[in-house]
Structures are given as C-alpha cells and as structure tokens.
Amino acid sequence: MIFALLVIIDLFLIMSFAFVPYVTRKTELFGVTFQAEKTNEPQLVRLRASYRNQMLLGGVALVVSSVALGLLLGWESVLSVVLWIVVMSLYLLAAFVLYLPKHRRMKQLKHENGWDAEQAPAVIVADTSLVTKDVVSPAWMLLFPLIIALTIAGIVFIWPQVPEQVPLHFDVTGNVDSWATKGIDAVLPLLVVQAFLAITVALCYVMVRVSKRQIDAANPNSTRRQGIRFRRATSAFLIVIGVACQLMIAIMQIVMLLGSTDVWAILVPGFVLLAVVGVATYILMFRVGQGGSRLREPAGQGARAANVDDDRYWKLGLIYVNPNDPALFVETRFGVGYTANLGRPLSWMILAGLVVVVVALVVFAFTVTG
Length: 370
Description:
Order of helices and strands: HEEHHEHEEHHHEEEEEH
Largest sheet: 2 strands, antiparallel
Mean pLDDT: 81
Number of strands: 10
Structural class: mainly alpha
Oligomer: single chain
Strand content: 5-15%
Number of domains: 2
Shape: globular
Number of helices: 8
C-alpha cells in the first residue's frame, strides 16, 4: 500500500505540472508578461497545449515506470522506492527542460508580434490600502499551539499504558527501523516537528501578507478584488494544510507511543492528509488561479493602459531579481504562489534562515533516531 501512495503522488504531480500554463495570470505565460487581451491568440493556445500534452505524456511514462518498479522489484522493496524517487526527480527535471524552450518561444512571439511595443501608455498601479482583510485572521494560527497542547495532554493521559520500548521510526517499506526507550526521547522528535510546522506556516502566512500586490493597469478594480480573494484563499490554504499535518503527527505520536507497529495506523492518516492536500491544492490552482485569475469579477471600464514591462528582472521567467523593488516577495510567474525578490538582501537572509531551520530539523531527526 505504500507504493499505492507513491502512485497517487505521481498523479498529483502530473496534474499540478501539466496544467500550470492554465492557472497563471492572463497577463503572463511561461515567465513572460504581455497584455491580457492577447491571452487567446492562436500561438499562445498552441504553446499551452504543447506543454500540457508533453507533461501528460511524460506523466504516463512516470506512472508506468512506478508500476513496473513495483511489479519487478516488489511493492514494499526499498530499492523500488529509491528508484521511484529517481524517476520522479527525472520527471521534475523534464518539467524544467520542457519549460525553457517554451519560455524562449514566448519571448520570441512577444517581440515578433510587437507585444513589447504596445501603443497603450505604460502605467503603474499601486494599492496602498490596509492589508488586514487580504488574509484570513491570524487568530486561526492559534490552532497550532492548541493541537500541540492537546497532543501533550494525550501523551500524559496514555503514559501509564506506554510500553518500555516504543517504535520511533518506520522505513520506506513500513517496518520499524528505530526504537526508543520510554522517556523524553520517545516523544520529543514529533513534538519538535509539530513546532517546526507551526513556525513554517506562520512564516508563509507573513510572506503572503506582506507580498507585493499585483494589479493589471488595464483592469485595476477587477484584478485588485481578485488579488484580495487570492490572498485570502492562499492564507486559508496554509492554515488548512498546517492543521491537517499537525493532526496527522498527533495521531502518529499517540499510535507509536502505544507501541503499535502496524504501518496502517500511519498510512490511513497519510492517505487522509494527501486527500486534504489534493482537494485544497485543486481549489487554489483550478478554482482560484494565480492572483485570483480564475475567479469571476466584473470587467473594469477604465481607459486602455499597459503594465510596465519588467521581464528584464525575471531570470528565465522564474527568478525575480530587482534591487529597485522594495517588495521582498512577489507572485511567481509560472505556477501558483510566491517567490522571493533576490535583489533584496533581506530576502536572502529569510531564505537562509529557513534553510538553517530545515537542516537543523533533519540533523535532529537523524540524531534522535540513531
């Protein structure tokens, strides 16, 4: 059943990557900006379809390879899982390799068709209103320390029934490969993971809250409303995923402390978590879209205007480097979410801090599991 979970992850990745061009803003495609009214140009329609079809074809190869590994090497084989990771990594690499020529072609089309020399005047539209209502209330994040507190309360309640040796870690095939003596070493690792998740979600929430608010100069009112709904949806997405992960870890903690070595006790919550993540991701990507671009809003009646072309600040259409922009985080141009402005030293410091926290957590996990 572990391999069934891996195949589901395959399908999730395929759907997420294949349809990325359809969920980005109507003013952006493969990392290149243009005017919204050009979005249904035949060349662009074919470009999106080409990437989608290539990624779906590669996805078929990914799923077939995953199933073949399970059949040839055994569904619960460590080697098959390791090779699955390799195959999945190759698929992700293929997504980038296929993206690059589409990015170059998009730049070429923009130049050949004169989309980089529109007659409409370039206009910068800024939203200076308060951001309080742009995201869900930060009070929802109190759920994280509450779940941690309830987990600790549950541990205290079952402590008399905890055996002297408890499973601490499962390998990729579902077998226990590390045990801990009843004590702090048996409870601390997952509690630390819960705390780390709470901090990570909080940081991501702040990132969404302070990110640059992108508005289409040709339709400012509509895109402003879409942006607000997008940020609220994104912040809600973070809370939902965070709570689901916290609850799963809490269940794992209690189950393992009771001495259970039944991997199903871990897999069932894992499937539930994956379902929650899948539904939430579907809503954010396909119902909301990047910047709220898939949300219905009445069209604006403003004068025709063009957005300032800042393609030069986007390296390969993916990496934003603009020292003149005070924003630390901006909407990514390929996909749904945000990316850092690497032209600002503070953004480097924030990213470095996150890397340090992740590395520290991994080192801690390996230390306590022996």
